[in-house]
Amino acid sequence: MSPIHVRGKQGEVAERVLLPGDPGRAEWIAQTFLEEPRLYTSHRGLLGFTGRYRGVPVSVQTTGMGAPSASIVAEELVSLGARVLLRVGTCGAVDEGLSPGDLVIAQGAVPLDGATRQYLEGRPYAPVPDAELFRALWKQAEQRGYPHHVGLVATEDAFYATTPEGAKAWAQFGLLAFEMEASALFLLGKMRKVRAGAILTVSNRIGDPELAPPEVLQEGVRRMVEVALEALLEV
């Protein structure tokens, strides 16, 4: 029986899965990087593809936006046999040292979202990625010489609620950027005994009226996916 939302079947989802939020980006990743990608689900626009990267089975599964949607997808992927869940998405920079198109490798995620809080039933907790996957991402970014930053991100629910002033307040605690899914994925990785990680592309700084120029953002995304896929081969 297929899960309720990710309408895949046992054997259709690879053990290693990339998790973009955007279905358009999921399709682009599958068509650009995977050999013989095959669509296994399109239910609710949560496009999922499985193909091969350097001969290794890899899936690309849309999560939608936010930790509630991402946690549903993650739970159902695990039930379908996924064992490595790697978020590939965008983030809004807080630290002034970050530039559009730079990569951010999340070392931990401040859980400002409601999904993580509900799973924890209010317990204090510090969501962190799988150590081996984190190390592989950092290694691959360094080897390629791509501009990258390693550290703390925050996972939020309300995209338009964060103000430039609020972002600056978080910067004093070493926060690099805001995004919307990582903390729940990190927590579920620990709860379900699978590897979880996140690598992000800076799309803008918090408070910028527009995103980075399309060509800058697209090159950042290309580098992010390249690093992510190579890291998947190491775990």
TrEMBL record:
Cellular component aspect of the GO annotation: cytosol
Domain Nucleoside phosphorylase: start-end pairs: 16-229
GO BP field: nucleoside catabolic process
Keywords: Glycosyltransferase, Transferase
SUPFAM superfamilies with a match to the protein in the record: Purine and uridine phosphorylases
EC number(s) given by UniProt: 2.4.2.3
Pfam family, one: PNP_UDP_1
Matching InterPro entries: Nucleoside_phosphorylase_CS (IPR018016), Nucleoside_phosphorylase_d (IPR000845), Nucleoside_phosphorylase_sf (IPR035994)
Gene Ontology MF: a single term: uridine phosphorylase activity
Broad EC category: transferase
Catalysed reaction, written as an equation: uridine + phosphate = alpha-D-ribose 1-phosphate + uracil
Family, as annotated: Belongs to the PNP/UDP phosphorylase family.
Protein name in the entry: Uridine phosphorylase
Species assigned in the record: Thermus scotoductus
